[in-house]
Design brief:
heterotrimer, A alpha+beta, B alpha+beta, C alpha/beta, B: alpha+beta, 7-stranded mixed β-sheet, 5-stranded mixed β-sheet, C: alpha/beta, 4-stranded parallel β-sheet, 16 helices, 11 strands, globular
Chain lengths: ~170, ~475, ~425
Amino acid sequence: MILKTDLYRAHGFLRGLYLGLKITMMTMLRNLFKHDRMTLNYPEEKYFYSDRFKGKHVLTVKEDGTLRCTSCMLCSTYCPAQCIHIVAADDSDKEVEKAPVSFEIEMLRCVFCGFCEEACPVDAIRLTGEYEMSGHAEQEWVADHYELAFRKSLNNGKGIVSTVEDKDRLKLRL
Amino acid sequence: MAEKVKLKWNGLDIEAEKGSNLLQAALDNGIEVAHYCYHAGLSIAGVCRMCMVEQDGVPRSFPACNATCTDGMSIHNDTPKIKAAVESTLQFHLLNHPLDCPVCDQAGECGLQDYYMKYGQYDSQMIDKKVHKPKVQDIGKNVMLDAERCILCTRCTRFTQEVTNTNELGILNRGDHAEITVNENLKNDYAQNLVDICPVGALTSKDFRFRQRVWFLDELQTTCIGCETGCSVKVSENKNGAFRVKPLYDHDVNGHWMCDDGRSIYKHVSSPTRLQSASECINGLFVPVDETIVQNTVKGKKPKYILSAGLTVEEYAAFFNAVKGAKVDVALYTLPVHGPEFDGILRRGDKNCNLRGAKAAFEKAGFDHSKAYLDKLLNGITSQDVVYVVVPEIIYNEDHFNTLISKVEKAGTRIALTPGETLASMRAFNYLLPVPSFLEKNGEILNYQGSARKLRAGLNYGETSKDVSYYGKWVNV
Amino acid sequence: MKETANNKDYALLSYHHIPGVHNLEIFERAGGYQTMKECFKKDPEAIKEEVKQSGLRGRGGAGFATGVKWGFFTKDRKAQKYLLCNADESEPGTFKDRFLVEKNPHILIEGMIISAWALATQKGYIYIRGEFYQQAMILEKAIAEAYAKGYLGKNIQGSGFDFDLYVHRGAGAYICGEETGMISSLEGKPGKPKLKPPFPAIKGYRGLPTMVNNVESLAAVPWIMKFGAAAYKQWGTEKSPGTKLFSISGDVNRPGVIEVPLSTTLKDIIEIHCGGMRNGNKLKAVIPGGSSAPIFNAEDSYAVKMDYEDVAARGSMLGSGAIIVLDETRNMGDVLKWTLEFYHHESCGQCTPCREGTGWMEKLFKRRERGTAKKSDIDILDRTASSMRGQTICALADAAAMPTQGMIKVFREELEQYVTTSTRK
């Protein structure tokens, strides 16, 4: 079979073999003698993913420390895994009017598709580069809004990923 | 039958009553015409300018809502001129609209959203400062007003003028500063209809506020059991329970409206105090119990039944079928009159939704449904008896019901079949058996006119049996 | 003074040179109320026919033939009906009715009595603009005089005809000059125009047949009845016969109210009747029929004949006959800005295109104050104005849209320059 391929016909057996395995060989040799190996000594070493990685969710927070989410439920409507559960209520601030009293994501059901991020009209939910998630019981996998917005691991230990001025959103109200 | 006329709408032949409203004729024939201010139950205002049409031979376009059908007229609303007019008028409607759909309860069933997707889809040119008006105003009777979202179709002001004659709402100021205001808080008993007729999110219900997005809800067409009027309603519900009740147009019974009392008839259905399974009352606590244990307890004892007037015709029939031949005492407990006899619009004081059906079933089976017979039965209760009380679904007058319970207490075994919330006074019963509420059963009830009104099953709650013979099952255990 | 149809002062202002003519006595001595007395001997239908023959057109702005309008009115003489006189003269630039009422209220009252007899209306109202306090007082006094003389009230002049006349002061809304808006206001409701049909002639004030006529139309009736329709038709053209009051304001030497036959050229009006342009400045533009009429450039202004057809043929309208003359020192951007501000302020807020459109046009045009204006804003303005036209219950949306579109058509470059000059501080 291989004798009939174009590569073999054009280059002969040995040269064809060399060309076919060139990249494999080069990578193998580099890994053998150089130190920038693909394999990491996880968890001592960690791989850095770009911000566009779709990892664990984060809820953004307004300057006054409340959630930016207006609980419009578009994310939970859009969610293909139906893992977002929001309970809305009146907000004391009439400009805000509606705010969530509970925002939960069932991490075990989430497929990390990022649709919630797309659907959000107010940039309240984002998917971060955080990929380390572990837990024992099922309950540990339901992330409430304290965890989603204020968990310790966020923003180098500051706990909040971003405080976006709410004026940005209200700018729409001209 | 009124005289029919034939007319053409976009080249399509339609039929309408002579002299009837052109817009209504189109809607009746299933033609979609954009409109905001027109409502079949209210007078014509002609202010939204969305239903503009052209007639062959008439130079100017005119609103269809203010035109009458005449024979042979040929109407168009698909010409480029009309389409452009509808689009630009929609643009005017949305010009000062705050576009706060994310926090607006109307989103999903909003006229502005619907028509924008259907007739608009333009790019906004508006970069100027919008006119701001007061938001989040509680105007009483569970109605919230947001003047900024309002498109001033005046449906609500016309409703308070024409239907309730209370005139609480009016328009203040002129031009684009015009806004709906209340001169005093709403005081009529039909205020929730304002929420229904508002085509946008300016008037929303405080009861339903932020509880669900409408696209998560299914509609269940059924009948209100609040009083003997028996209005056609649709109940919005999903797997989490029922959330709101809205009226359904019914020419013969309720027209377009329903009263505010009827809006809360869904509340007991998924109430946390409602029983999910058969329970026994032990030291004032309700403990789930197997139904067979209850059956063993009552086996062989002579039962006495006190039925409520809220069961369906089918349930009565199945019950009396089971009773036939057995030695059973059956009486009818009716709710007392609550409020005025009839308030002139829809609401009636008699809260027994199927009183006529109950009486007919009693008479057919040869039982006495009078109050005197109920008293006789109650006085004759001994400690040997098993008394079954079918609890009315909605108890308007708790004291009246509690007196019934106190009279039943003499009996040795007291069993309540309850479709609604568990009251504190129900601790007087030995056993509570859950029965389906009106949202969980199919059937018919006879309203004040004696006409059959349909109940439809939609929800599932707990271990309630949907079998119509469930009530009769306890007769012959 | 000899009474002929060829008096220099024409029809409406034929008494105005008499000092103190607002007194009934002096007015009567000059020949007033004679026509009324004769009219009571005539058949009402004959009066209607005479007015129809004269070709008198409604002087309020729309120019609908008065006789034809009377023809639509119910002929049942017993039924309760109303005659409304529209003295809510609020169009910017118009002040002819004020002048007429102020100088000679009796000519209006006489006209109303004759019209009421012809139309068999038992009650009449003069809806006068709220700001015309003094004029309302003059009218009140004149009506009291007429009552005292027995020209108003029960059984006028032994004819068995009753007619009561009242003055109603408006509250200063432009929209109340629209006939159904006026009826709403008179009923005690907010002055918002009503849907037509039904027309006021069928279902008007309090749901009863109501005839609404302008002050000038009603004031012309006595003259027509006195000298006949043929005499009235000697002036003007076939389609717009008679004379018309013009109120001229702006950059002319002698602004004021004049009466000239229709079809007089605008050039004659400016040069002869108004003494030419002020300071000898060059004419730039003329608004021929009040603020809602599209503007004429200098060329059209000198060529146009002031009658209904010719003004319409040149793309404007005669309207209420308010001629606003603008010279070369005027900026058309400012003119349009003030026009738009006026209509934004006066829109009643009922129909959406007008409510939102008038406000938005003003905001659009004032974008330069926020520094967000572009040349293309003029296109948006034009499009907005065109989508407002013919979309509303009353003509206010058209009244705002027409001058805007007219102005864009004639002075586009100037407006483009105006909007792009940022005035942001």
